[in-house]
Write a structure and sequence with these properties.
Blueprint (H helix, E strand, L loop, with lengths): L3 E3 L4 E4 L1 E2 L6 E4 L3 E5 L11 H5 L2 H18 L2 H7 L9 H17 L9
Parallel strand pairs: 3-5
Antiparallel strand pairs: 1-2, 4-5
């Protein structure tokens, strides 16, 4: 599941997309990647993201994209990522819960807007 094709930059498969800034993504077949958004402390407007280590941001992005590929939607990934079966630590689970709370509160419970 690791890595996606980057046709624009003529790279057959990469796990990190330096030219993207959303935090991560999924491609056909459920292949996942992270991108330069993990370096941005303002990617998510919550203090937990800004104060998290790079490792925790990367793990949170991987967990979210993994769940999105598995379940088929961003909204379902928001719900399930904090409880993923992936081996992530408690700090990453807390970060994913904070992101979920913020996005659901921002939307008033309606998860129709993509991050």
């Amino acid at each position: 599941m690791i890595g996606s094709s980057d046709h624009k930059h003529r790279v057959e498969r990469r796990a990190f997309f330096p030219h993207e800034s959303g935090g991560g993504g999924i491609a056909t077949g459920g292949r996942i990647n992270v991108d330069s958004g993990v370096f941005n402390p303002e990617l998510h407007p919550i203090t937990e993201w800004a104060h998290s280590s790079l490792r925790h941001r990367i793990d949170a992005s991987i967990a979210h994209e993994y769940e999105e590929a598995r379940l088929g939607s961003h909204e379902l990934a928001l719900e399930s990522a904090p409880e993923t079966d992936l081996p992530i630590g408690g700090a990453v689970r807390r970060l994913l819960r904070a992101i979920r709370m913020h996005e659901q509160g921002f939307r008033g419970g309606n998860s129709s807007r993509r991050r």
